[in-house]
Amino acid sequence: xxxxxxxxxxxxxxxxxxxxxxxxxxxxxxxxxxxxxxxxxxxxxxxxxxxxxxxxxxxxxxxxxxxxxxxxxxxxxxxxxxxxxxxxxxxxxxxxxxxxxxxxxxxxxxxxxxxxxxxxxxxxxxxxxxxxxxxxxxxxxxxxxxxxxxxxxxxxxxxxxxxxxxxxxxxxxxxxxxxxxxxxxxxxxxxxxxxxxxxxxxxxxxxxxxxxxxxxxxxxxxxxxxxxxxxxxxxxxxxxxxxxxxxxxxxxxxxxxxxxxxxxxxxxxxxxxxxxxxxxxxxxxxxxxxxxxxxxxxxxxxxxxxxxxxxxxxxxxxxxxxxxxxxxxxxxxxxxxxxxxxxxxxxxxxxxxxxxxxxxxxxxxxxxxxxxxxxxxxxxxxxxxxxxxxxxxxxxxxxxxxxxxxxxxxxxxxxxxxxxxxxxxxxxxxxxxxxxxxxxxxxxxxxxxxxxxxxxxxxxxxxxxxxxxxxxxxxxxxxxxxxxxxxxxxxxxxxxxxxxx
Length: 501
What we know:
mainly alpha, three-stranded antiparallel sheet, 24 helices, about 45% helix
């Protein structure tokens, strides 16, 4: 039979498949599950998308239940094992995994279904099913990092390390448990997590593997395989686990690999309830992970390889390398790109609290460098390092070495480069055309577009320099300026200054 054509990158595709499977389950209708998957083009590789980017989807569980209805326990377990290989959220509780669902209780909405609970209880009573589940116990599902001991973290690749004095009133050494007070000499460390930890010098002597780990970090001597099981991108993590990843292959993935943007809602600037949602895709907002992968390659000592690729890849690749505050790399990239005024201009985006003169410099540079703006637009859309999200399961560039300048939401200052050409930045163009502003999506905690200050300011400054009086009046209405996320007094002052320049 001809395979149906589906776009498996869309969440709606998986929701439609889930509805189809649910009808079969409700009616206790047995099907040839292998044929169902084959006819719809759902291969082992496609199953990576079925996780919908976070935790697991109902689709996976329905397939397992349908296999079990047929008594195909071995196929059900094999299916679980395949899906388990694509588990990308290391650090999540074991109970969040698909294995956890079948070992413990239904989760993620399925617990509300009496029939699913009945199926689950029926399976729990099956000795045969239990025996098959036991064969999964070899799998890598000890995912909660907080359950690991200190020896594990001593060897785990470090993403940020700084020898400093403790600024907190009190803390404790992560490795020795020694109590710390403000002013103590400590190492501040981050293992690609939301939280920072601290350890003291003597920990390096107590844990030789930690001492070696710090040496690798400080001298960029990690190996790519050191990051196996520590990278939260489903395809990259699987690739690193095979230990067959080459630098060229990883760079191709970074430059050309699949990436879905962060979701957002576009709201009327006057009526917050009047909104439209962006098209939802699987593995949303994962582009920042590609930036982290570039960082991994730098920590593995491949900076020269990355530099040599600038002339082989599209312009946006070279521009993307500038995100790191790594002096030697930055100097060499700027030299290779050979764009007059780029170094001075790019460094302005890293400053906190830009004044109107600096904003005007960014705007003027963008006005005179159309090709650069096009490439930067692709870079920002693809990797989204200009966005800042407080409550989502995505890494924050400000938590890694050479990325600390992104703290304080400064990445959004890239918008100022588009003051004269907002049409080159899709989100700005969409806002102007539809007369709406983006916001994060509360369902799922997507908050990348909660910080509107720089985006809104760019729109206001664009309308100012292009003398669009009526549009300016519409966008500068007090009801809009009253939004808590906007620094309205500063924007008003800058508009006046900009009009006089």
